[in-house]
Design a protein that fits this description.
Helices cover about 40% and strands about 10% of the residues. α1 crosses α9. The N and C termini lie far apart (about 65 Å). Pathway: Protein modification; protein ubiquitination.
């Protein structure tokens, strides 16, 4: 007979903490009780696609967090993580047999929404589901900040750098769609990946990668000397193009934190970004990291509103102290109880938990009985 696989309490607690942090980062930045439709095209929010209501072959549609709970409970949902500038579709023309319970008065379609194959549960250039039951290779999925598709690390065409969770990625397709991004990548992108891509492709003499000693702060300045009298705002992009430096235009590109602040924001470049639908690149608060930070802050504020403390406000001082002491005692005893299992690497069973609370009840009865002895 096969030995049953078990995990220690330490493993369970660590995994639970990671899941809670991830959920807080993604979900706490969105409203779980009210449909986001009245807010219009929300800057960034958690989204879902319903395979039950809008299966593949039909029109793509996305629903907000609250509608995923209230209107699509029990449905087959695809979690899309977050997407920008999206308005909730729940109950509109795309849902022939469902009406939104939270905000039924909606336009037939949201014409400014952008959709991809993600809304039908497939991702990456390989158009596979995630998790993929037929793929045994362990590989992380990374989201492109432009098209917002998720791609396997091995399908990016470059080496994935360390600390990738603190960086932004633009896939090769989006880089080629907006060629001026290649100019920025020479000077602003995470170093290393470009050189490795060049080695893999053989490279050409006219696509040299900048030397390591060339720093970002140095190259974004004009290459030619300018007189002190010249104070007109210049175009950073033109100055970078004037350096004559290029890189292998192949593979995805990774960008370090705060790289957006170094993009040119002159009138010409703002118009270029607007026409390309990339104005969000000048907004550092548009990043997923900024959204996640907002979600964690919201979660911390909600945790600060302890329901126990709210209930205590309606009790007198003596009752408040008794409940607080009892609560703290139980929390300390439960922590000590679980730490013994963690220290020994043992699994906590339902019987162990049941026994703990039976002991708590027994101690409570003994304290009550002892109190009666001293009553007059």
């Amino acid at each position: 007979m096969c030995e049953e696989q078990t995990v220690s309490l330490v493993d369970v607690l660590e995994e639970d903490e990671e899941l809670e942090e991830e959920a807080s980062a993604v979900l706490a930045g969105s409203d779980s009780d009210h449909c986001s439709y009245p807010q219009g095209y929300v800057k960034r929010q958690a989204l879902y696609a319903c395979n039950t209501c809008t299966p593949k072959g039909g029109e793509a549609a996305g629903v907000c967090l609250a509608c995923s709970y209230k209107c699509h409970e029990g449905h087959d949902l695809f979690e899309l993580y977050t997407k920008r500038n999206f308005r909730c579709d729940c109950g509109n023309r795309k849902f022939t047999e469902l009406q939104c319970k939270l905000y039924p008065d909606k336009d037939e379609v949201n014409s400014l929404n952008k959709y991809s194959h993600n809304f039908f549960g497939v991702y990456c250039t390989c158009s596979r589901p995630y998790p993929d039951p037929d793929d045994q290779v362990e590989d992380e999925m990374i989201q492109c900040v432009v098209c917002e598709d998720w791609l396997h690390g091995r399908h990016l065409g470059c080496v994935v750098p360390d600390c990738v969770e603190l960086q932004e990625m633009i896939c090769e397709f989006c880089m080629n769609k907006h060629p001026f991004l290649w100019t920025y990548s020479v000077h602003l992108a995470v170093p290393g990946a470009a050189a490795q891509v060049k080695e893999e492709t053989g490279g050409n003499s006219n696509t040299d990668v900048p030397n390591k000693e060339e720093q970002v702060d140095d190259v974004i300045e004009p290459s030619s000397k300018r007189s002190r009298e010249e104070v007109k705002p210049s175009c950073k992009l033109k100055e970078l193009q004037g350096t004559g430096q290029n890189r292998v235009q192949s593979g995805a590109v990774f960008w370090p934190s705060a790289w957006r602040s170094k993009l040119c924001s002159c009138n010409t470049c703002q118009e270029r970004l607007s026409e390309a639908g990339l104005s969000f690149l000048l907004d550092e608060s548009d990043t997923v990291l900024a959204y996640e930070k907002k979600g964690k802050n919201n979660e911390q504020r909600q945790q600060g509103q302890d329901p126990l403390m709210s209930a205590l406000d309606n009790l007198n001082r003596v009752q408040q102290l008794e409940i607080i002491h009892g609560y703290n005692d139980m929390k300390t005893e439960l922590k000590d109880f679980l730490q013994r299992f963690a220290a020994e690497g043992k699994v906590v069973t339902p019987d162990d938990i049941r026994q703990f609370f039976e002991q708590q009840q027994s101690r409570k009865r003994r304290r009550v009985d002892a109190g009666r002895f001293y009553c007059t």
